[in-house]
Every structure is written in C-alpha cells, then in structure tokens.
Specification:
Elements: E1 5-13, H1 16-32, E2 36-40, E3 56-62, H2 65-73, H3 75-84, E4 88-96
Antiparallel strand pairs: 1-3, 1-4, 2-3
C-alpha cells in the first residue's frame, strides 16, 4: 500500500515580482523531489463556511508524506523560502493521503 503526501499552502502575495522568483525556485525543488502540482493558484469559489479573502492556494502531491518533508527541508527549497521571506505570507502543511490499495 502506498500513502501519498500532500503539501497544502496558502499564500498572501505582497511583492509579485519577488514571488515570481520564488515560484521558479520552488518549482525546480518540487520537481527534484518528485512533486506534482494538483492546484496552483486557480480561481476559488466559496461554497460553504466562513472563508474570507481566499488566498492563493497550492496543493502538491508527493509519493509520501516523508518525501514532501524532504522537499520542504531541502537546501533548494530553503533557498526559495529566503527569496519569499518578504514577498508573501505563507501557511503550509503536509497531510497524509488515503492508502492506495493498488
């Protein structure tokens, strides 16, 4: 059985130019660790609840939660985080997916 790992991030971008640089660095690191974007800042529509000002939402699938954490802790991603430091407010978490029985 394989359990995927999903990195979920929400960002409130303040400096668009610096965030674009961050995105390029982050994309490279995500690819290096086998991540695949599932959602990347697409339009969001509130259907229920008390969401306000829906931020930029990103969901990346990794082969496992451990692999997602390896990406996050990597030197490559830490360099991207430095670039993003004053460009955006970010919340990020990793969640384990449902076991795949295939």
């Amino acid at each position: 059985m394989t359990q995927k790992g999903y990195l979920i991030a929400e960002a409130k971008v303040g400096d668009v130019a610096a965030y674009e640089i961050y995105k390029g660095l982050a994309q490279s690191a995500i690819a290096q660790y086998g991540g695949r974007y599932l959602v990347r800042g697409g339009a969001a529509e509130i259907l229920e609840g008390k969401w306000t000002n829906v931020p930029r939402l990103v969901i990346v699938e990794f082969d496992s939660p451990e692999r997602a954490k390896c990406f996050y802790q990597s030197a490559e991603y830490q360099a991207a985080r430095k670039v993003r430091e004053n460009a955006a407010e970010m919340n990020m978490l990793v969640v384990a997916g449902i076991d795949n029985l295939i």
